[in-house]
Automatic annotation (TrEMBL), chain A:
<keyword id="KW-0227">DNA damage</keyword>
<dbReference type="InterPro" id="IPR036361">
    <property type="entry name" value="SAP_dom_sf"/>
</dbReference>
<keyword id="KW-0238">DNA-binding</keyword>
<keyword id="KW-0158">Chromosome</keyword>
<dbReference type="Pfam" id="PF03731">
    <property type="entry name" value="Ku_N"/>
</dbReference>
<feature type="domain" description="SAP">
    <location>
        <begin position="616"/>
        <end position="650"/>
    </location>
</feature>
<dbReference type="InterPro" id="IPR047087">
    <property type="entry name" value="KU70_core_dom"/>
</dbReference>
<dbReference type="GO" id="GO:0005524">
    <property type="term" value="F:ATP binding"/>
</dbReference>
<dbReference type="InterPro" id="IPR005160">
    <property type="entry name" value="Ku_C"/>
</dbReference>
TrEMBL record, chain B:
<keyword id="KW-0378">Hydrolase</keyword>
<comment type="similarity">
    <text>Belongs to the ku80 family.</text>
</comment>
<dbReference type="GO" id="GO:0003684">
    <property type="term" value="F:damaged DNA binding"/>
</dbReference>
<keyword id="KW-0233">DNA recombination</keyword>
<dbReference type="GO" id="GO:0006310">
    <property type="term" value="P:DNA recombination"/>
</dbReference>
<dbReference type="InterPro" id="IPR036465">
    <property type="entry name" value="vWFA_dom_sf"/>
</dbReference>
<dbReference type="InterPro" id="IPR036494">
    <property type="entry name" value="Ku_C_sf"/>
</dbReference>
<protein>
    <recommendedName>
        <fullName>ATP-dependent DNA helicase II subunit 2</fullName>
        <ecNumber>3.6.4.12</ecNumber>
    </recommendedName>
</protein>
<dbReference type="InterPro" id="IPR002035">
    <property type="entry name" value="VWF_A"/>
</dbReference>
Length: 654, 732
């Protein structure tokens, strides 16, 4: 029961999944994002038509909401525990949290809390979707107030939302979307009080991100108002974003690329709160010569959240939270954590160690990255990999001058195509690994925005224990002529820009999972066909490489015939596994080709024959397994299960 | 599955084994047993029923064997018949292995008995048969019928290993001085026997030394995919290319032995247990209470996890109520909404896929960034029995190699598994060709974190600068370059022929924790008391740069350090006042002045905005009294919030405020102000003085480690670690 296994409480795998532990700690650092979007006549005016054939001429407000909608959907997948909210200000209507309203407060006039700060629910997604897609819906709400709005009040409103809804969050961010660079041009007192409220937000640990929009006739000028509101990365907060994130080019309503696209790209670049995996770990470049670095997870396989239990007997479906209690197996007595001892199974019994001994066994020195020496990059084979690399970037926290030293090393390694080899202990008592230190250059997209940051990467290397032997097989080297034909095929089919760009390939299974869930949660019709960008472009392949493949096929046939003449009698297969000659003559390019199964299993014809005569039950387990494996069917279970699977196969075929 | 094994160890326990030869601190028997125990415990550790072993004592006081009626088989005892040895058996065996009072007993006879045991046990079945003799060669031996023995050993394919205490071994480079002539003759006899049987003959010193090199476990390759490698769609186009392939793991992480959780059995008295808390658990030998004796003789009970499920119910006490697992349906979370999916529809969110390895396109080596690899790696080879496929794949491998290209492919290993994108790289060795495959990231797998460039500095105004304190000077770059070149590992090692080779090749590095735990468990099984010896040298060898390399690069490192001019930040430099003064918005506006913070004005901390108010009050506090007053005000607010909290609704805020208060008091070096409050708060929470049962709030404080500020965190604190720990764990 694979499904059941998911419910194994985390404690049981503690030791084994030690590598994952830091990832868990990482996830507990939660992020809350509150969008505040201005509603004003100019924010509700679509940009003038331009020469460019852009269909979407969204008003700045609508573009901002579309971004929020996109971000909400994205975060449900990528950060399912993080919160999000949407607050409109400058609206004629006023709305705040229900509890506060009940207390009779209309404390924040002209602020409309459209989505309260929380983990988004299906209803929130739907409401936002309707607002974005349904004009009637939005027209009701998009009525600018006639009274000027006090920014101090707006900021304090945000303060209250963060204080009540997202206490203890490691990251709280306020995304302001506006085209008004000087809301209190004439009222100095209001401007001052806004600055004071901004300081409150700073003291609360809220980071303000401004997404300014320039008007057709006016460039957004931060210095008029927003430079008093926004603080640079704080010197005391270790998790603060690097200084460069303070700079966002204003999106313009008039230039060639649509407002939505440019806004979306600036918001996307801030979508994830930057969280360090480890902070200020010493990086020892030589004995006694240390600098400090921080580590970040940039590559991480994103998986769908595992299934959960739902309670249906209430008014609406509710997720049941599981609580694990540990009890002694003999008396079913509930036990405290301190009572638990760790023991290793050995020879049918347990070998125990004191907790001190257990931790000393795992202790191989203090956390740190210690360079052992350097090697050419060519000595790092492509297979030497066990999990995604960790990104490291210098930090001045512990050693002043770390950045310049790091930079010197990175540039040297890049220039000479070298790598460092390091002994790496990520945390106290973490399993030590030997890692390659790879230099990474900054990569930029066509607009000059950063895709991959400059820095270095720690790639954990396998130990001898982790390296498997190659499976035995026979070597038949392709003749030159055949290789030449294949080269022509390969040359036809380079990927765009001759590179693999992950951004072009969303994970189809992950997207489909959430696409279906969204449809079910919003009670929409289920989509029929998934979009899968990983499926090769068959037509193009046929068009470009087809003739060359056919040439190659003829050549292969010819060369193979010749090879067979020379090797007819020689059993060139590993002992015990030789197949009768003639069986291996499989044409290489038709689906029907799969007649012979590997490893001496019965052929399809044999199996079918046996099945018709009900003799398949007499086959041996290895025979059944070999055949099922050839069909990519499960080979687990007892013989009866295997037989059943064979029967299923043929029954379906009839 | 691994082959069945039957190994018989013959251990010489004659009087002479009790001596301490060659200035060793332990007896020859203890020394030799280091080797035998390692071998035996390694076998036990496999936990395989088919890995069986027997033990024979040679030159024992007693005689216990099948041929014991005959003269030549005296003083030989079978200590352990061939079977899977478990921990109790190991303990019994330990009792039996001790130096005897006799010098009689013939090693050759013992080998005969071992042969007999194996023959009887294994019959004609498929077994790996092995005899290991450990002796000091100082007993008398009768080598008359030795040729018969050789014949039997060879015909039954037994492996004979003889490891001698202080035997000469010119290959290894050991020679015992003043060797007893009788021992020399015995050594020669045994050596001849072993050589005739194609066995292994060695000296104990080498055998023990080699124990320090961990053994690698070989695993039978199991394919993770069998099917076709295609280019194009064979269902649609005749021009599609298909090659039958199989995919096997190349790298798979071997995890250390996992510990399981146990608790003390409640039916055993504590006193009995505590004396051995760190030892193996011995059976209750005196059997005082036969009725309660456990079948496995263990005093530990395993820990079971019981899972209960709760839903929010505002009417239930505590706001939650338990629901039975049977009343629950399967579903998924979409944001915070539960999406119920009926049992029959569970697969609806699964993307339907067909197995296949389909090439999407090709990329040159040069554009691929090595750090993008996401997973362990596999090898892809052509179907083993298909010569045409082997030739076909070979042409692809060579074409990729010649074009310096990789293929990017979509892999589905089984129907309805999510597709993976993999990189297929050609690998050509002298006698092996394959594609290596490693997974690549999807769009969702890449987090977009931005970092400033490292080769230039961009100022706030957007200007690019090439000279800056964060950028290396030319001197630093040169020094770094020289140092990196000086620390080259590429030819520091030695290959099998002694030629310079790569140092620290992955095949020479062993997983430290894996082998350390393995070593410790096996050691503890044999030595229930006493500390575990230090880790094998090989496990820590690569934790530091090789000494000769460091010595050679010393000058270069000194130059580098000088050019880098790195300064360690002293720990106490971050004074709160100083940092707080630096905090200004981008414009540099003095917000403090706007607040009208004159020293005389006292800031009132409001319940709506407590944290900013508190911080600002501390900024303006000019006396200890003002600081204490701010703490008092915030304390009152926290208590009020808890008192008015419906269920746990306000606990999060209270925890955050406590956290702020705690860290600010550490910064201001006023730990007592916080400690005083948290002490009183604990009393009120547990005494139900803040609106009823508030134990959950106390739990939050414990969980978030918001206990007393101890000396470690603040020099001013009078609370030691012990007290801080007790404060959090005690319930009064």
């Amino acid at each position: 029961m694979a499904e059941e296994n998911k419910w194994k409480p985390p404690g049981e795998e503690e030791e084994e999944e030690e590598d994952e532990v830091d990832e868990a700690a990482y996830k507990s650092a939660r992020d809350a994002v509150l969008f505040i979007i201005e509603i004003s006549p100019s924010m509700l005016t679509a940009p003038p038509p331009t020469d460019a054939k852009k269909r979407d001429r969204d008003t700045p407000t609508l573009a901002a909401l579309k971004c929020a909608y996109a971000l909400m959907q994205q975060r449900i997948i990528s950060n399912p525990n993080d919160m999000m909210g949407v607050l409109l200000y400058g609206t004629d209507e006023t709305k705040f949290q229900e509890e506060a309203e009940a207390r009779g407060g209309l404390a924040y006039p002209n602020c409309y809390l459209f989505t309260d700060l929380d983990i988004p629910a299906a209803g929130d997604v739907k409401a936002l979707k309707d607002l974005v897609e349904d004009e009637e819906e939005s027209e009701k709400l998009f009525v600018p107030s006639t009274e000027p709005v006090s920014m101090a009040n707006v900021l304090f409103c945000a303060n209250q939302i963060f204080t009540t809804k997202a206490p203890n969050f490691t990251s709280r961010r306020l995304f302001i979307v506006t085209d008004n660079d000087d809301p209190h041009a004439k009222d100095k007192a209001l401007k001052s009080s806004a600055a004071v409220r901004a300081k409150d937000l700073y003291d609360l640990g809220v980071i303000i991100e401004l997404f300014p929009i320039s008007k057709p006739d006016h460039e957004f000028d931060r210095s008029r108002f927003y430079d008093d509101i926004i603080y640079n990365a704080s010197p005391t907060d270790p998790e603060a974003p690097a200084p460069m994130s303070g700079v966002v080019a204003p999106s313009s309503t008039s230039d060639g690329i649509s407002l939505l696209t440019s806004l979306l790209s600036s918001i996307n670049s801030k979508a994830v709160a930057k969280r360090a995996l480890f902070s200020s770990v010493p990086f020892e470049i030589g004995p006694g010569f240390k600098i400090s670095v921080k580590g970040y997870i940039i590559f991480k396989r994103q998986e769908p959240k595992s299934s959960c239990y739902v309670w249906l007997d209430g008014e609406k479906p509710q997720i049941a939270t599981g609580v694990t209690t540990q009890m002694a197996d003999d008396t079913a007595r509930t036990i405290e954590k301190v009572e638990i001892k760790k023991a290793y199974k050995f020879g049918g019994e347990q070998i125990t160690f004191t907790p001190e001994e257990v931790s000393s066994l795992r202790h191989f020195g203090d956390p740190g990255i210690r360079i052992i020496g350097f090697k050419p990059l060519s000595m790092l084979p492509i297979w030497a990999n066990i999990r995604p690399s960790t990104f490291i970037y210098p930090s001045e926290d512990d050693y002043v001058g770390s950045t310049r030293v790091f930079s010197a090393l990175q540039q040297k390694l890049l220039k000479d195509q070298k790598i460092g080899i390091a002994w790496f202990v990520a945390r106290k008592n973490a399993t030590p690994v030997i890692a390659a230190v790879l230099p990474g250059a900054e990569t930029l997209d066509e607009n000059g925005a950063q895709i991959i940051p400059p820095g270095m990467w720690l790639t954990p290397l396998p130990f001898a224990d982790d390296i498997r032997q190659n499976p035995e097989t026979n070597l038949i080297r392709a003749p030159e002529g055949l290789i030449d034909r294949m080269r022509e095929v390969v040359q036809q089919l380079q990927l765009p820009k001759a590179m693999y760009d992950p951004r072009k390939y969303p994970n189809p299974a992950l997207q489909w999972h959430y696409r279906i869930l969204q449809a079910m949660a919003l009670e929409e019709d289920l989509p029929e066909k998934p979009e899968d960008k990983t499926i090769p472009r068959y037509k193009q392949i046929d068009k470009r490489a087809g003739p060359y493949v056919i040439d190659w096929g003829h050549e292969l046939h010819k060369e193979h015939e010749e090879w067979r003449k020379d090797n007819e009698t020689a059993t060139s297969f590993p002992a015990k596994r030789s197949a009768p000659p003639g069986k291996d003559d499989i044409p290489d390019r038709s689906k029907k080709a799969k007649t012979a199964t590997p490893d001496g299993g019965p052929t399809d014809a044999e199996m079918k024959h046996a099945y018709m005569k009900q003799e398949h039950k007499k086959m041996t387990v290895p025979q059944l397994k070999a055949w099922l494996q050839g069909k990519n069917m499960s080979v687990g279970g007892k013989k009866a299960d295997l037989v059943e699977r064979v029967e299923e196969f043929f029954e379906q075929r009839r | 599955m691994a082959d069945k094994e039957a190994t018989v160890y013959i251990v010489d326990m004659g009087t002479s084994m009790g001596e301490k030869s060659n200035a060793r601190k332990e007896s020859d028997l203890d020394w030799a047993m280091t080797y035998v125990w390692e071998k035996i415990t390694s076998t036990i550790a496999t936990d395989r029923k088919t890995a069986q072993l027997g033990v024979i004592g040679l030159r024992t006081d007693r005689t216990e064997n099948e041929l014991d009626s005959e003269d030549s088989f005296q003083n030989i005892s079978v200590l352990q018949e061939i079977s899977q040895l478990l921990l109790p058996g190991l303990k019994e065996l330990r009792q039996k292995v001790k130096v005897s009072d006799t010098t009689d007993g013939d090693a050759i006879s013992a080998i005969v008995i071992a042969i007999q045991m194996i023959t009887k046990h294994c019959k004609k079945l498929k077994y790996k048969r092995k005899i290991v003799l450990v002796t000091d060669g100082r007993g008398s031996m009768d080598a008359d019928d030795i040729s018969q023995i050789t014949e039997k050993i060879k015909s039954d394919e037994m492996e004979l290993v003889v490891i001698g205490v202080d035997f000469d071994d010119p290959d290894y480079g050991f020679k015992e001085e003043d060797k007893d002539p009788e021992k020399a003759i015995n050594e020669a006899t045994l050596r001849a026997l072993v050589e005739d049987c194609d066995g292994i003959f060695g000296t104990m010193q080498q055998a023990i030394e080699e124990l320090g090199t961990p053994r690698l476990k070989t695993t039978r390759p199991v394919p993770s995919y069998k099917g076709q490698l295609t280019l194009g769609d064979p269902g649609q186009f005749d021009s599609a290319l298909c090659i039958d392939v199989e995919r096997y793991p190349r790298v798979m992480v071997r995890r250390p032995l996992a510990a399981s959780q146990y608790v003390q059995r409640s039916d055993l008295s504590l006193g009995h247990f505590s004396t051995q808390s760190s030892a193996t658990i011995m059976p209750d030998v005196d059997g005082a209470e036969p009725g309660s004796a456990q079948p496995d003789g263990s005093s530990l009970a395993s820990v079971r996890n019981a899972r209960t499920y709760q839903v929010i119910d505002e009417e239930a006490p505590g706001g939650k109520r338990d629901v039975s697992r049977d009343d629950l349906a399967k579903g998924y979370e979409y944001g915070r909404t539960a999406v119920h999916i009926s049992e029959s529809d569970l697969n609806v969110t699964k993307l339907e896929t067909q197995p296949g390895l389909e090439i999407i396109g090709f990329i040159p080596w040069s554009t691929f960034e090595r750090y993008m690899t996401m997973s362990v790696s596999c090898v892809v080879i052509a179907q083993k029995t298909n010569s045409k496929a082997i030739m076909a794949l070979s042409s692809l491998i060579h074409a990729l190699f010649e074009l310096e290209s990789y293929a990017v492919a979509r892999l589905v290993t089984k129907a309805d598994k999510g597709p993976l994108i993999t990189l297929l790289a050609p690998s050509i060795e002298v006698d092996y060709e394959c594609l290596l495959d490693v997974q690549l990231p999807y769009a969702e797998d890449v987090r977009s974190y931005k970092f400033p460039p490292l080769d230039r500095v961009i100022t706030v105004s957007g200007k690019e600068i090439r000279e800056h304190r964060n950028l290396p000077s030319d001197a630093l770059s040169t020094a770094m370059s020289d140092y990196v070149d000086g620390m080259d590992l590429s030819d520091l090692g030695k290959d099998d022929e002694g030629n310079p080779a790569e140092y620290m090749n992955m095949n020479d590095t062993y997983s430290p924790v894996l082998h350390r735990i393995d070593q410790a468990v096996r050691w503890r099984a044999v030595h229930p008391t006493g500390p575990v010896p230090p880790p094998y040298d090989i496990l820590t060898r690569y934790s530091n740069p090789p000494e000769e390399l460091v010595a050679g690069a010393k000058k270069k490192l000194e130059k580098l350090i000088a050019a880098a001019n790195v300064k360690k930040v002293p720990p106490k430099v971050q004074s709160r006042k100083r940092n707080r003064n630096e905090i200004k918005p981008l414009s540099g506006l003095d917000v403090g002045a706007l607040l009208g913070n004159s020293k005389s004005k006292k800031i009132k901390i409001t319940r709506e905005n407590p944290i900013p108010d508190f911080k600002q009050a501390l900024d303006t506090a000019d006396s200890l009294e003002a600081t204490r007053d701010a703490v008092r005000q915030l304390s009152t607010i926290i208590e009020g919030q808890i008192r008015d909290s419906f269920g746990d609704i306000a606990y999060g805020r209270a925890v955050e405020e406590l956290g702020v208060m705690r860290s600010e008091m550490i910064d201001l070096e006023e730990p007592e102000a916080y400690n005083e409050f948290v002490r009183s708060l604990k009393g009120k929470l547990l005494g139900e003085e803040l609106g009823g049962d508030r134990r959950d709030m106390w739990y939050e404080i414990r969980k978030n480690k918001l206990g007393l500020i101890e000396k470690k965190s603040s020099d001013e604190s009078r609370v030691d670690e012990e007290e801080a720990k007790a404060f959090l764990s005690s319930r009064s």
